[in-house]
Amino acid sequence: MTAPAVPQRLAAPGPGWTDSVDVVVIGSGVAGLSAALKARELGSVLVVTKDVVASGSTQWAQGGIAAALDPEDSPEDHLQDTLVAGAGLSDPEAVRVLVTEGPDAVRDLIELGARFDTLADGEISLGREGGHHRNRIAHAGGDATGAEIERALVAAVKRAKDIRLIEHALVLDLLTAEDGAVAGVTLHVMGEGQLDGVGAIRTRAVILASGGLGQLYAATTNPSVSTGDGMALALRAGAKVRDLEFIQFHPTVLWLGKSAKGQQPLVSEAVRGEGAFLVDHTGKRFMQGQHELADLAPRDIVAKAIMRQMLATGKDHVYLDARHFGDEKWRVRFPTILASCRSHGIDPVRELIPVAPACHYSSGGVRTDLNGQTSVPGLYACGEVACTGVHGANRLASNSLLEGLVFARRIAAHLADGLPERKEPIVDVRTPGLVDADVVPELQRAMTAGAGVIRSAAGLSEAGATIGKLIEQPADEPGTPGWEATNLVTVASALLAAATAREESRGAHWREDHPDRDDLHWSGSLDLTLPAVAERAVPQATFVPHTEENHRHG
Ligand code: SIN
Asked: What region holds the FAD-dependent oxidoreductase 2 FAD-binding domain (predicted)?
């Protein structure tokens, strides 16, 4: 299969206004706001966010933030669990950075005002999730950790009067200089006072922290803003995107029926961490004997086991049994999930919770080094949009908030050695393109059927053929729906290129036509790039073996 050809830049009106700052941060979740708070010491900082500031994925994170905070735990143990979950593709050096700098980053967050749940003695209460051999997940408000972290960061950014914030703004494309380095961004602002419509912002550095791509699939835990914008923009700017085939499907997303679409309620792994277990429709526990951690095996293993059970029983969901928690534990430890189940007519105190896997997290993204630098000078990335090498083929539960915090700090520390020179943008003569937003539901169906939990050459090829046709439907006029649709097809095409090329099963990438992990041929990553041609281009996947050298510079 050849992946569909995608536009080289978004069709948009010319900028009606210009502005200039030192650093533009795209995105306002844990990664973006942490980066902005650190970078403000270096120069003028502008945060651009697509909706309102707290609308991204961070606020939905339930489980928590993993860090070796318990004296009985150690960064080394956290490292081992992360490497095992990563199924041989995590960069050990990136993981070492994460686990050693993580505890301080969490303490910084507490100093900033984030309130984690504590025990009677005042110590942070630490929970367990899939793939962790120790209790190391700090949580807040029971199961509302992301919301509390986002609250603390938003409050800190609002206190920092020198950080400018533009809400309801979609960044369209990067402006680049003659040498390919960052010179600025173009963006569209929705009627926010003096800045309205398409504009251009000149800048010395861009920090991409725009989150993930869950809206590629029919059902996802991600909010509606997760349309892969940052990854698509980076590809169009010539950056490398890595490990995109490793899309994590969360095993226990509340099953609301066959036709449920868009953002679905999550039932945190922390529920299994507290002793809930999976059963099929006959009441049989099916995780025992599949992995030493049974129901708490790494996420890819549990998702696959659920899919196998669903195929074997002909059902489209399984159940989570947490009735033994009783009323009080549900109310105190999992108030968000309790409310969400009850709002859908399910009482988890008395009933089994119907669950099925749904798209949750992109383990890959825009390739960075340990300082968050991408392959485009002046372009940095952190959070879900980035591939720092931490997650490999499958992210360990609750490592994502930590990764956002740690690598945002590293980007700011790197920029503190000297902001890049300000550059003049060149005129972009590439042919612009725009896809009709009406194609999105069909795109989501095609990706779910062909590039979901279970994949094969035939299924991927079918998805590619469908999306190839969808790309031919142009939008009548530029606007957010068309820009998002174009970003979605761009990322879909790159994902299909990688998932087709990787002829093995590993981590979150499960090929039923290549069911085994193949370390001899596939111990490495696939880098995706968009060839620099004038017209539409097909994303190219290049295999990068995981030698130590390639981990650092690949
Ligand atoms: C969960 O609470 O199960 C999700 C946590 C995560 O994705 O890391």
From this structure: 22-401
